[in-house]
Amino acid sequence: MTGSAIVAALLITQRYFAVHDFDFSPGALLFRAAMLLGHFTALTTLLMLPVLLFLLLIPRPRVVIPLGVAVLTSIVLVLLIDTQVYQLYRFHINAGVLNLLFGGAARETFVFPTEMYLIAILIMLVVLAAAAGCGALAWRHVSMRPVQRNLGRAVGATVLVSMLGFHVAHMWADVKSYRPWLEQTEVLPLRYVATAKRALRAIGVASSAPSHEQFIGKTRGSNLSYPLQPLQCAAPRHTPNIVILMIDSWRFDAMDAAVTPNTHAFAQRAVQFTSHYSGGNATRIGVFSFFYSVPGTYWHSALIERRSPVLIDELLERHYDIQVFQSAPLHSPEFDRTVFTRLSNPRMTSDGANPAEWDRDLTDDFLRYLDARSADEPFFAFLFYDSSHSFVVPPDHPQPFQPSAPTINYLKLDNQTDAVPLLNLYRNSVHYVDSLIGEVLDAMKGRGLLDDTIVIITGDHGQEFNDNGRNFWGHNSNFSKYQTSVPFVFYAPNREPAVLGHQTTHFDVAPTLLGEYLGCNESRETYSVGRSLFDTASREPIVFSDYSDFAIASQGRIALVRQHGMSLYDADYKPVEALFDGHAIRAALEQRARFYKASRAARQ
User: Fold this and answer.
1) Which residue among 29, 118, 526, 560 is least crowded, i.e. fewest CB within 10 A of its CB?
2) Closest CA relative to residue 447, chosen from 497, 507, 382, 373
3) Start-end of H helices in 90-105
4) Are 346 and 404 in contact (CB under 8 A)?
């Protein structure tokens, strides 16, 4: 019956590909065959182990056949449901998703006609009957014929070669950014793929990713539908310069006259948004949500397809000179293949031995750029500071916050750790970054650029210091306000200073710049899940995400959806026993699915 389960799984998994337009070259098809055979044979065999165990210990048809039928039926039904969910929403079912959908809010989230339930029951009965037939035939075959060891060895060798070949091929494709192979792994439930980018680089196998134009030209189709339609933008009478100053791990309460005196002083002539949230709790998703204005769940597709954000596309269309000054290497995370994939020769690294020196270097490079740039074209500059992420302060920089820890060791942190010295070290590192931002602002002011430049100062995500007493430190571990809420300062010439308390998000940046300053009156829903920063309407539900999980925030509740289940928290990230709003679930799932191409089956 294990063979029947494997064959059934391989047949059903073809439904995953119905919503994709993947490459059909011989190499891509061979990669797909090895991937499916290796992955689903291993997965199905693992699930069928109880049947094999009973076959060895209690080889009786009354025991083995019903158990085998039950397991085979379960495998087939789960795969059918998973492929249907994947076609609609582009994610796989897991304990968290099941809890989200059926944890008491299912009636509000999904409304199905009676006919659909009848069809589902019929499919279940057909699958059960087919599994029973396979079970009976399998038992007859096993009991009447001797075991064919040579055939078994050949099949096992084929599966092993397929599995190893798939993972080795994926490692090569990952370091070479070879999309026709990389994109195929998106369909795998319980996906595990081998990568060795750093190891390969260490032995001299360099990434040789093609240019954006070459990459797009070599690929057959696209999984994303982003934007839903091309933007229609009228040329504005004036195109301002745009400067983004982003501080890594800058939490919402780390901007004041003491911690960030330069930014605080500049904010008095700008608009301050005091309830602003990133789209994630880590750098990759925080920056992604800022530029793309869509949930971080689209990250992997954008990376595989090397899809540029609409904001950058429009800036290039307007002949902006786009410059990137990032402290950490631009390829880690892979912003060189996502946000700035269309730039021909971006600045990839900073000189120095640590983040503080990198920050100094990027600031100096930007100041030199201001002196060398052509005044005939507008410019867009992204300055991304890293010292606060690593809690690094140069020896010669003042450390006004005391007592300050000399360094931070996350391995020694627990619920009894005194957070004050660590928080002070963090504040000192932010204070250092603010001194560099002060130099940038002074240089722009001295050159008269503030009369013609939009300046945004914000963070990619927050930083937690066990604020809720639940032993959470740093970021990328929960979606509380300490890890997702960041300062946000928006300066534009001729816009009156203000302090605004309505909720805003990183998803609002692109609609604001495109709609209010670049003449793009296209409906924001075609490229964004955000609004204008100055629109006071509710943003909920907000879809947060990290590298693997996502959360839905609505009405003071946070639903955290992970592989192993769903948890519900209040605004202080304390567990609560309650039902989550079904309307919020439905709206969040729509955000997660909106920018994927709909399959023919889903549209029907």
Assistant:
1) 118
2) 373
3) 95-102
4) no
Give me the torsion for CA of 187, 193, 198, 202, rounded to 10°: -130
Between the CA of residue 549 and those of 285, 322, 416, 486, what are the distances in Å?
Answer: 11, 32, 28, 20
In total, the chain counts a number of residues equal to: 604
- Interatomic CA distance for residues 518 and 316, integer angstroms: 12
Identify the top-confidence range among 6-10, 221-225, 465-469.
465-469
Taking the CA atoms of 264, 269, 270 and 274 in sequence, report the sign of the dihedral they define: positive
Predicted local distance difference test score (pLDDT) of residue 187:
82
Q: What is the pTM of this model?
A: 0.77
Centroid of chain to Cα 463: 18
Per-position b or e across 560-580, b if 16+ CB within 10 A of its CB: bbbeeebbbbeeebeeeeeeb
Q: Is 475 exposed, middle or buried (0-12, 13-18, 19+ CB in 10 A)?
A: buried
Residue 560 bridge partners (DSSP): 551, 567
Residue 435 is inside which H or E element, if any? helix 420-446
| Other C-beta atoms lying within 10 Å of the C-beta of residue 291 | 22
**pLDDT > 70 fraction of the chain, expressed in percent and rounded:** 85
| Beta carbons of 473 and 507 less than 8 angstroms apart | no
Query: What DSSP letter does each residue of 124-167 carry, written as one string?
Result: HHHHHHHHHHHHHHHHHHHHHS---HHHHHHHHHHHHHHHHHHH
User: For residues 558 and 479, is the Cβ–Cβ distance under 8 A?
Assistant: yes
Distances in Å between the alpha carbon of 379 and those of 216, 376, 492, 600?
A: 26, 10, 15, 42
